[in-house]
Design brief:
With about 230 residues, this protein is mainly alpha-helical. The protein has one domain. About 75% of the residues lie in helices and about 5% in strands. It is built from eight helices and three strands; from the N terminus they run ααβββαααααα. It has a three-stranded mixed beta sheet. Strand 2 and strand 3 form a beta hairpin. The protein is globular, with a radius of gyration of 20 Å. About 35% of the residues are buried. The mean pLDDT is about 85.
Length: about 230
């Protein structure tokens, strides 16, 4: 019974943040015409205001993010095209990362370098996990299979680790950059600042929650491969 409760607790710790982030983002995505600017337009306005006119704003399907290599704020269609509180708040968060880049914020530099290392490692880890069962059958050595599994899990888990250790950078983008921008612009409607604060917290936790879900997927892989 204690073992079962422990498993439930661990799953709740992993799934809980992802569910909360999704809930907050969806809650304030309606009405989608609450403001006069779409997320893309508001991002452009803030970037110009901060002398970052060289930074582009683009539509993406890969999740809201700032690309420090190509100097682009990328927003998904629900933020790019809509004028909800979620859209403009997330846009401000990503502009916050552009401001970090402009200011040579050390944590962003470290994150950029770590991600460049981790992405290939993640692909390599996935390949290892796919090949592990075949290798065990061909080589007939549980030790080799075990080592491959460990290598695969560590490679995939490295993504989660990077996002967790760079959470302070995300919080900085939300509360030391985006929130002051929103207050300075005086753009938020009366009563929306408290909700924007929740959204900025969710924006900061987006990568971490996604990474925790990756850990859950790794656990599923482990369960499958043990059979």
């Amino acid at each position: 019974m204690l073992y079962l409760l422990l498993i439930i607790f661990i799953i709740a710790l992993i799934v809980g943040p992802a569910y909360w982030v999704k809930h907050i983002m969806e809650r304030y995505s309606q009405p989608d015409n609450r403001y006069t600017h779409t997320g893309a337009e508001f991002a452009r306005r803030l970037l110009n205001q901060e002398n970052l006119s060289h930074v582009k704003v683009e539509l993406t399907e890969l999740g809201d993010h700032y690309d420090p290599i190509n100097k682009v704020v990328r927003l998904t269609s629900d933020k790019f095209n809509n004028a909800s509180l979620t859209a403009i708040t997330v846009a401000a968060h990503e502009v916050g990362h552009a401001m970090q880049d402009r200011d040579d914020y050390l944590a962003l530099k470290i994150r950029t370098k770590l991600v460049a290392l981790v992405v290939p490692a993640q692909k390599f880890g996935a390949a290892i996990l796919m090949l592990a069962p075949v290798s065990v059958m061909l080589i007939r050595s549980p030790l080799i299979g075990g080592l491959m599994l460990v290598g695969g899990f560590l490679s995939l888990g490295s993504t989660a680790l990077v996002h967790i250790i760079t959470l302070p950078m995300e919080l900085n983008a939300s509360f030391s950059r985006a929130l002051p921008l929103l207050k300075k612009s005086k753009y938020l409607k009366e009563g929306d600042e408290l909700h924007a604060h929740k959204l900025l917290t969710a924006a900061a936790w987006t990568y971490v929650s996604a990474s925790l879900m990756t850990l859950l997927n790794i656990a599923r892989w482990w369960a499958i491969l043990r059979r």
